[in-house]
Every structure is written in structure tokens, then in C-alpha cells.
Amino acid sequence: MISINHQAVLGTVSENDILALRPAAQAAVQTLEGGTGAGNDFLGWLHLPSSIDAAMLDDIEATARTLRAQCDYVVAIGIGGSYLGAKAVIEALGDNFAAYKPSVGAKVVFAGNNIGEDYLYDLMKLLDGKRFGIVVISKSGTTTEPAIAFRLLKEKLEMQVGKDAASKLIVAITDEKRGALRSLATEEGYKTYVIPDNVGGRFSVLTPVGLLPIAIAGFDIKALVAGAVDMERGDESLVLDYAATRNALYRAGKKIEILVNFNPSLHYLAEWWKQLYGESEGKDHKGIFPASVDFTTDLHSMGQWVQDGERTIFETVITVENPRNKVVIPSDKDDLDGLNYIAGKRVDEVNKMAELGTRLAHVDGGVPNIVITLPALDERSLGQLIYFFEKACGVSGYVLEVNPFNQPGVEAYKKNMFALLNKPGYEAESAAIQAKL
Ligand code: PA5
User: Fold this and answer.
1) For ligand 1, what atom is nearest to the CA of residue 279?
2) If you classify domain 48-219 with CATH, what class do you get?
3) Is the pLDDT of residue 124 over 90?
4) Distance (Å, rounded) from C-alpha 271 to C-alpha 350?
């Protein structure tokens, strides 16, 4: 089971400061459970793990098997919450140089998470003449980035295999009734899955949005969900502790939380976490700024800033107890590189000492840290971690007194972009923005 330790924040805030926020965190849990708080129409994630239908998981696995059998690549198209959960889990569990489970999974590549012309060109070149399928994911069904990628890749697939065959290689995950993607899927006869109305994008990794791409990549979605159920039914004090501690630090002037890993596979988990906390808490001119670093890599870039820069940061370190594989540092008779003092040690022993040394140095430098420990980087632990972060995010947002389940600020760039592109319906905005340029 994952665990949490806040000992290393106690020089910055006291145990009493944290305990003083526990009642607010407990009240937030009651608000979530009772559905009485802001954004209460988006609480479908709260008991999602324990209510996932076994038949649904079987169906997702069957679809994944079919696509794997027919495709060398599956393109998962989506952005934000319709992308980051799957990407995070696949990267965390996958072979570092394949990002899927070789011998079981198909390669899952991502699109629609940017509007990079070269990205799309290179992807289409990669897929030239290859057997590929598409999972297109958009809750609203109208988001511009995935819509552009889907239009291009759908056309490419239809040109490569014909319209009928293509329609059997495309799966759409979207709203049950609304949106352009739902209409298109119905028209073209695609296999579809529904994103529940009451689950927001950034809380949707345990719906088909995350589960289908993860299953296609060859990972055990039942174990992932079982891990989330462990946490849903397990010890609530972990969630309360994290929510209370980070809010106590925020009130003590620590405005930036850096999620730290010492394992390159966790890079995208941090990207997912940043979206979860950034979109949930950054409101009403409040909220901890969520940042991330990959150590030891970034100790050679951001390490200086963390050690000696402005003291407005704290760290949350994700530590993994046991690596999946064993690599031992060999002895060398000449020892020209001077490394024989660690010969015979596993690489992970060195990494763990780098981690401990870094944590101690940062505390000495005025950067407190919370430590979250995972027994291993496997489906079960990741499921626990995902649900832990989701629930703590809801609790923390209520402690901060914001609505953690909306994202009104995301609309501002879209409105300007549509105005600049002269999208029908945006005539007044187009005139206003042109006058400013
Ligand atoms: O968390 C969210 O709600 C957002 O990040 C969305 O997931 C993102 O904007 C994509 O939206 P959609 O799935 O409607 O295309």
C-alpha cells in the first residue's frame, strides 16, 4: 500500500499547524460524500473505482485485444484529461524505450494534444503503410486540437484501408448524446464508449478514457482499478494528511509545490498531477502552483534553483521502494573511473542515496518535503496513487475554498483563437480582437 510521511516539513510548519487544518479537510470529505459543495455535479469519480462494472472491464479488454491483433500502432487522440492519464500510466508501467508492454501490447502513440504541424506530419509519416487504429477521445466532442488530428488521421486511415475497414479500426470515447464526435461516431458506425456526465476530464483516467489506451498498451486494467478500490475503501488519513499538510505549507508562504521523482518513468505522472491540481485549484487568484522535476536529471538544471532560489517552494517526493529489474554496477580491475567504491551495488541503491541526500540538502536549504512511497511501480500501486491524488485534490480544493471541478479559465484562449480564426458565431469577438491588434 502507498504511504505518506510529512516529517520533513516540520521545520517550516508545526504538527499543530497541520492538525489545525485536519477538521477543514475532514469537513471537505463530508462535503464530497454528501455532494453538498461547489461542483457537486462532477463527483462521479468519487466512488467510480468500486462501481466499475466487471462486464465493462471485460468489454474494454476485448476491444483492446481486437485492436492489438489488427494494429502495430494505435493512435490515442485527446488532450488534457482526455490524454494525460493514459499517457502517465503507460509511461510509468512500460519499458523505458518502448512505452508499452512488449510481446503483449500494441504501441500507443498520442495525437491531438498539441497543434504542432511537424508533429502531425511526422506522425503521419510514421504511420505510412503501417497497420494502425485510432481511439479518439473527447468528452465535449468539440475540442479543436483532437478534432484536427482526427480529421487528418481518419482520412489517412480511410485512404490506406478503405472506409469500411477504417470504421472498424476506430473507437470513439465521448459523451453519451452530445457533441460533434458523438454524431460522427453514430454516422460512421464506430464502436463507442461513454464518458460519464458527472466525471470531469482530469478525473477520468479510470473510465474508458484512460482504461482503453492502457489496455491496448498491454497493461492490467483490472489490477489498476483494484488499486484504486484499495484507496477508495482504505485509510482516509493519507488523503487528509496530504491535503492538510500542503494547505498548511501554502498558508506559510510556500506557493509552489514541486512533484519530484527519481524515476524517469514517472515524468508523465507528474504531468497528469499538474493538470489535476492546476486546473482544480488555480482559481479566484488563489492556488498552489504545481510544478515538477525529474531527478537526478534535473538536479543538473533546476537543482541550483531548488537549493538556493526564492524560498516559496516545497517538494512532494514520489519514491518507489523496489525497481522492476536488477542492474548491478560491475567492478573494474583498473578502476580508472574511480567507481569501484560502489561496485557490487545495485543502481537503485545509488539512486536511493541520491534521493536521501537531495531531500536532506533541500530541507537544509529551506525546502520542506512530503514523501509519498510506492512499494513498486506496478498497476496496483499506481491505481492507489491515482485515486489518492484525485481524492486529496477534491479535499484540498474545498479547504482552499474554490470549486475544484470546473475550469472557466481554460475558455479564454479558445475564445481568442476562434475569434482570430474567424470561426462562425464569433463575429463580434473577431471584430473586438482585430481592433486590439
Ligand atoms: O480536465 C478537463 O476537463 C480538461 O482538461 C479536458 O479534459 C480537456 O480540455 C479536453 O476536453 P475534451 O475531452 O472535451 O476534448
Assistant:
1) 1
2) alpha beta
3) yes
4) 26
Ligand 1 pocket residue status of 222, Cβ below 6 Å: no
Edge-to-edge strands, sheet with 73-77: 107-111, 73-77, 132-138, 170-174, 191-194
Query: Are 3-36+227-404 and 48-219 equal in CATH topology?
Result: yes
> Domain extents for the chain?
3-36+227-404, 48-219
- Ligand 1 centroid distance, CA of 172 (Å): 15
Catalytic site positions: 279, 300, 414
Average pLDDT, integer, range 149-158: 98
Q: Which atom of ligand 1 is nearest to the CA of 80?
A: 5
Distance CA 251, CA 360 (A): 23
Ligand 1: which of 83, 110, 139 to mutate, most ligand atoms within 8 Å of CB? 139
Phi, psi of 190 (to 5 degrees): -75, 155
- At residue 433, the pLDDT reads 92
CATH superfamily label, 3-36+227-404:
Glucose-6-phosphate isomerase like protein; domain 1 (3.40.50.10490)
Percent of the chain having pLDDT more than 70? 100
Angle at 375 between CA 345 and CA 394, to 5 degrees: 140
Q: How far is CA 382 from the centre of its chain?
A: 11
Average of per-residue pLDDT across 260-277: 98
CA-derived radius of gyration, the chain:
23
Ligand 1 midpoint to CA 79 (Å):
6
Pairing verdict, β 3-5 and 170-174: unpaired
Of 192-206, 262-276, 297-311, 423-437, the poorest mean pLDDT is in: 423-437
pLDDT level of residue 99 (50, 70, 90 thresholds): confident
79 lines ligand 1 (CB under 6 A): yes
CA-nearest residue, atom 8 of ligand 1? 80
Question: What pLDDT does residue 8 have?
Answer: 98
